[in-house]
């Protein structure tokens, strides 16, 4: 699937830097849309396969330019603070890029969500219930924002956008090269719904990055229009 440039949103955080490392390691032409490009490590910024476009996620012209040069999108954007931002920020961002994707013929997008987003296929999980309840109490704005992300994809993306919201929980791990290299081999990946065999509550950032690049390469058609949980597969050994 991935024969053109992959556009990355959220590429300056730890998980995003791991994703950039994985994409460049696998020789994908990549565009990083960043408000603060200086957060991208110099060894990545200097890679000829990486194009960096500076802009705010509210800048429609800059977003249009970035999307027009891509064939698929991976977004790791999401709330990472307890307060200080508007819950509508990320839902509004996705709402704004759907028409741009249609205009430029870009169909595929993988967008990050969390296990706070409910799915009818999830089985009851006491651990999930407790974690989501905690987030709802101590980080209400973040909770409302991520719920809004799930709703905007489910209700507004439309049939001409091939979307997948991958829901995560904890993503520990470093973003330096050594940590990424070690963590990308950390166990097999679970993809499915709460309560299914193998689901856990964490996945190392390097392993998530590897799964995302696998996903953009093969398209993960079975997850189009769906919101799978993605985690380390419980009890699995080191990947090779």
UniProtKB/TrEMBL annotation:
Transmembrane segments: none annotated. Signal peptide: none annotated. Residues 10-216 form the NAD(P)-binding domain. SUPFAM superfamilies: NAD(P)-binding Rossmann-fold domains. InterPro entries: NAD(P)-bd_dom, NAD(P)-bd_dom_sf, Polyketide_Oxido-like. GO terms for molecular function: oxidoreductase activity, acting on the CH-NH group of donors, NAD or NADP as acceptor. PANTHER family: FLAVIN REDUCTASE (NADPH). Belongs to the avfA family. This is NAD(P)-binding domain-containing protein.
